[in-house]
Input
Amino acid sequence: LDQLRVVLVAPRNPLNIGAAARAMSNFGFKHLRLVNPYHVAFREARSAVGAAELLASAEEFTATADAVADCALVVGTTSIGHRELQHPIRRLEYGARLMRRASGPVALLFGSEKYGLSNEDLSHCHWLIRIATESSMNLGQAVAICLYELSRDPRAARRAPEPVKPAQAGDVERFTEMLLDTLRRCGYVNPRTSRSTEEKVRRLVRRLNLPARDIEVWFGILRQMLWKLDGVL
Amino acid sequence: LDQLRVVLVAPRNPLNIGAAARAMSNFGFKHLRLVNPYHVAFREARSAVGAAELLASAEEFTATADAVADCALVVGTTSIGHRELQHPIRRLEYGARLMRRASGPVALLFGSEKYGLSNEDLSHCHWLIRIATESSMNLGQAVAICLYELSRDPRAARRAPEPVKPAQAGDVERFTEMLLDTLRRCGYVNPRTSRSTEEKVRRLVRRLNLPARDIEVWFGILRQMLWKLDGVL
Output
């Protein structure tokens, strides 16, 4: 986290700078650098919710070369096919993995909202990443997605679903009996076909997959219904 | 892609609605739903770059129940620990996997910028996801990150690095010889220690890992330097 330098080159909209700062703060990144921001007053961006300190400590540069000078790896960002590129372009999923492995500070460069990174900016990059989208993204959102991917936990994705502890068969049968009692009192069960109705309801209840943790609540609900129906009769 | 309904409940800032629409358009999602948006004129949000059509076709509802009625799975979003939650909370990485597997339309709910989803909204959800951050995110950025994770290609992350074809040993040695020729003409090589200097330079060049595709350019550079140095002498 402490190795990454987010470098915004010639950003035009202070709201985007603030949004980038907020996303950095969300994910715990600290070092924001700006090359020739268009608005001088960017540090007051109201969109930097919870990131005022980070924005205050952002470093300003007048040349991309200076903003990346202390980095071991310089990675540019690009939207798809907006020019002929001389660099290897990697999908974010893969590029982020390589960035995490870098041994030294890593600069991640974002170009201006309107034009992206210039060819001169790009020539300072070792390689480029792109987010696989159909159209060009908002700057603040692009920064957020890159930082998310860098913070992403692949093990979290591979987790097995938590098993829901099912109610025991005895409890499920008790639930079925109470439901059938209720249905009988409501006149839902036709005495002539009661055997087949009972079996139908039994299967119906098994398909509910009643969780063990909920069974007592269901007993309470059915008890209350039975008590009320007894009053009615 | 066509199964997802992005549902913004009581969003306050039209810029965020537009940003959500833009992110949806970026990743190819189509169905935006709004429950009681605070601003009536949200459809004119300038932040919906390239997503005007999507925003125009957004559906409006006055109740969360109606906005999710046709969905097989309803997933809420929450920031960490902002209240005691009765739902299973899953990390986005894992929740997105479950959402992709759903058999039927999936609603993904986002609450208002200020308060998040209400307890009533949450009670319509099967479970919740959270983005693992240290503080609460901007709405437009949170939407973008969720859609990114849903569109993410896990195979792209597992890719092996592209092998860079290294220059052949013969070419590397030719490069070394040309460099040594240059260094001799510049007076860098002390004749008394020339043997050890040669070996040092040979090792130095091997550590460069010269790529095969660049070797001819390097020959050209060194040829030009040698030609110029011959003129000087």
